[in-house]
Amino acid sequence: MPPRVRNLDEVDQTVMVPWDATSAEQARAELRASLADQRVADGTLDEAVQVISELVANAVQHAGPMAGDVLRVHWTLRKGVVEVDVTDGGSDSTPQPVRITPWQTRGRGLRIVRAYAHEWGYLDQPNGARTVWAALGGPSRRRTR
């Protein structure tokens, strides 16, 4: 779906990606292309790209797909704040950063999200789906959980 541009510096875009670890690369590329010409600060853009990658990877690792074996990847840009979110088919586990040790090779995804994001959280949908979101470059209009 092409991005909706409300004003010169506002974007609202959704893409559906396969429920597959390789989809993180597609999500990063789509996000970067969408926001590249929108005067987003380089640091905020780079952080948003990293965060969307972590959220897609976490959805594939810890949750099920939505109908059609897909994930919904969405982002908005308003007044310099980039909000990204990934919706999956839901999970029995709760998204939370885990305690890590220097020897672990996995488990740093939500710590990375938390480090870059101004705010982050998740919303459980009535249909069992879950959306994990993060705001970069400033506060979100959402409430954190």
From TrEMBL:
Keywords: ATP-binding, Kinase, Nucleotide-binding, Serine/threonine-protein kinase, Transferase
UniProt domain Histidine kinase/HSP90-like ATPase: residue ranges: 20-128
Full protein name: ATP-binding protein
Membrane-crossing residue ranges in chain numbering: none
Keyword Kinase: yes
InterPro entries: Anti-sigma-factor_SerPK, HATPase_C_sf, HATPase_dom
Keyword Amino-acid biosynthesis in record: no
Family annotation (Pfam families): HATPase_c_2
An example molecular function term from Gene Ontology annotations: ATP binding
Native organism: Arsenicicoccus bolidensis
